[in-house]
Amino acid sequence: QVQLVESGGGLVQARGSLTLSCAASGRTFSSNTMGWFRQAPGKEREFVAAIRWSLGSTYYADSVKGRFTTSRDNAKNTVDLHMNSLKPEDTAVYYCASSPLFRPREASDFKSWGQGTQVTVSS
What we know:
There is one protein chain. By secondary structure, this protein is mainly β. It is built from no helices and 11 strands. The protein has strands spanning 2-7, 10-13, 18-26, 33-39, 46-52, 58-60, 68-73, 78-83, 92-99, 112-113, 117-122. The strands form 2 sheets. Strands 2, 4, 5, 6, 9, 10 and 11 form a 7-stranded mixed beta sheet that branches. A 4-stranded antiparallel beta sheet has the order 1-3-8-7, with no helix packed on it.
């Protein structure tokens, strides 16, 4: 099992920036891809971004492409989500998650989840 802890959420004005961090521990060797998801009130959890530990390759949801980037630090077992040009519709609880798969995109593909961190973007 991989344990994940997110940090960095908060309140930010529209067009502002925020960086979320996710620290992984435990059976990290079983993790091939780290993903970011978000869930707004009354909505389903949706995919935001993902990165492979080994190659550092990334992919994003269309809604955040060009505004968000994700990066990883293999030595520290941490993954960051850098969010720029934030919009009120980005308001949600953000989760990091770990998957043994190589290009997962569905929430069901991810086996370990963090507790989530709230991001609120004011207009």
